[in-house]
Amino acid sequence: xxxxxxxxxxxxxxxxxxxxxxxxxxxxxxxxxxxxxxxxxxxxxxxxxxxxxxxxxxxxxxxxxxxxxxxxxxxxxxxxxxxxxxxxxxxxxxxxxxxxxxxxxxxxxxxxxxxxxxxxxxxxxxxxxxxxxxxxxxxxxxxxxxxxxxxxxxxxxxxxxxxxxxxxxxxxxxxxxxxxxxxxxxxxxxxxxxxxxxxxxxxxxxxxxxxxxxxxxxxxxxxxxxxxxxxxxxxxxxxxxxxxxxxxxxxxxxxxxxxxxxxxxxxxxxxxxxxxxxxxxxxxxxxxxx
Amino acid sequence: xxxxxxxxxxxxxxxxxxxxxxxxxxxxxxxxxxxxxxxxxxxxxxxxxxxxxxxxxxxxxxxxxxxxxxxxxxxxxxxxxxxxxxxxxxxxxxxxxxxxxxxxxxxxxxxxxxxxxxxxxxxxxxxxxxxxxxxxxxxxxxxxxxxxxxxxxxxxxxxxxxxxxxxxxxxxxxxxxxxxxxxxxxxxxxxxxxxxxxxxxxxxxxxxxxxxxxxxxxxxxxxxxxxxxxxxxxxxxxxxxxxxxxxxxxxxxxxxxxxxxxxxxxxxxxxxxxxxxxxxxxxxxxxxxxxxxxxxxxxxxxxxxxxxxxxxxxxxxxxxxxxxxxxxxxxxxxxxxxxxxxxxxxxxxxxxxxxxxxxxxxxxxxxxxxxxxxxxxxxxxxxxxxxxxxxxx
Lengths: 290, 393
Prior knowledge:
The complex is a heterodimer of chains A (about 290) and B (about 400). Chain A has about 290 residues and is mainly α. Chain A has one domain: ABC transporter involved in vitamin B12 uptake, BtuC. Chain A has helices spanning about 5-35, 40-55, 60-85, 95-115, 140-160, 165-175, 175-180, 185-210, 220-230, 240-260, 265-290; strands at about 130-135, 135-140. The model of chain A is unreliable at about 285-290 (pLDDT under 50). Chain B is an alpha/beta fold and about 400 residues long. Chain B is about 45% helix and about 15% strand. Chain B has a five-stranded parallel beta sheet with strand order 2-1-3-4-5, sandwiched between helices. A four-stranded parallel beta sheet of chain B has the order 7-6-8-9, with helices on both faces. In chain B, strands 10-13-14 form a three-stranded antiparallel beta sheet. In chain B, α11 (about 315-340) packs across α12 (about 345-350). The N and C termini of chain B lie far apart (about 75 Å). The chains are: A mainly alpha (about 290), B alpha/beta (about 400). The interface between A and B is large, with 40 and 36 residues.
């Protein structure tokens, strides 16, 4: 086995894993605050990519279009919370999860109607000439993906651990009633978590679209992979999902490279199965706590 | 408890009555119009193929009816969405046959889904004209009495690619195929046809068409230093393969299947689409054909009609497959009417088996042993240059 091939598998694994980690981050934020697994997370990613595509088509300069796309998707996240989650009030977690599945189907169908069913391409942030690295090649866009993931991870970590909002989010997650007694509005915290998750999802969408493509149904596959990354991280801390995403990306890439590409997508499902088997008890305890 | 019994009774009544109502409707309708059905991929990953097929059928239906239909009776085409899913397609097929009482069925768009429909069609004894590529849809012909198709088969397409590679003195190739029905059947043809040509497959990889990165598979391929790469899939996955090959600076020729024969591939792959060579029916290069080509007039007419309705540059080979299917079925009905015979499913099937048609996908000569009837001259090679299709002949 040539070294350059191993390097290439690692580079690919880290790039793809970073994307899984950002998508998983959205799952983790919402789960840790509300106990809901938001199945519309993949749809936030898709909306990020597609809205950015439309804005660039309207003539917005690239950076403006990307930031605007993230802002708009954040609004979608807020609206989704206000329209679909808040009216359900004190409904059980499982009901809320089913609501998010319905929301995901709705968003995907509307996107399919509005943008059509074809895949679209987004231009790379800076250049599309690949860079050579120990015999392997990497696109500038992949560096953007890895860099933005790192910044996002650190940013969310600091937000959750070093700011008042973050402390409020954590407090609401640990004990809703006690948090309410000290004046933390749990509904507000739920709203903030959806906004945050939508924003991170949209960032994933705009950074990944130039690497592959954007299309109305891209959220299904990315949502699944992000969910596995979040599950591997135990749905709690930022670092867990970061390692979960990278682990999944690397495992997929190495398995496809050294065993067979037929196993590539089976890896995610095997990981999911293993995680659910090992962690199911912990997850359920977490649910009761929230 | 009473309530449950009541609901059960109501259900039995509803289910029991439905077929009766369908029968009643059918007798009234057959005197006014000929009903044919179509099951197409209007959503799911085959949707970029199914949409032009639907548009073509609707256009031809309107054209034929505006011209007075067949013997004064209108043609009615009932179209259902398969969602590129086998189960949905089978349910839609049953609905066409049992509730809508269609004379013949066209579809499905993709090979895997078409294969799944074969038993339903054969049991119901209704002719099917498939719009999908795979050889297995019409072979072995003894078991495919009711099944016909209009697109070139995979082995013809592969043969055309291998012929090109031999002409370029290339004999070591790597293949990368999608894990969906289209890719799996194409993979079979790619491996099977090596017997007839001086071609060796040095690397054999697969990809999930919904996946967003194929760099790993291509890195494996790169390690074997093939002289050319053949990618077999529909537009989304194939566009990622083209992009990733560019990233990895793999400069060998990239050949693809006819599954990318729509502008969507170029939209999705962008700059990476340039240099890709693929075999396709003659429609995309109709203007470049010599005037002696028997298909040229038909091709230009279809292109003009379609693009007048749906916009410049919108006509593609997938719509062409639907054109052929519609003409084959309606010509069969016309023949039966001309002969004064009853228009039945069995009658249409017999006429399909002897059909001669100068169509979009090629010149058809159907027979009892060939339910496609196309020769290798139906295909031409196209290269993408500066985001445009050009003849690579």
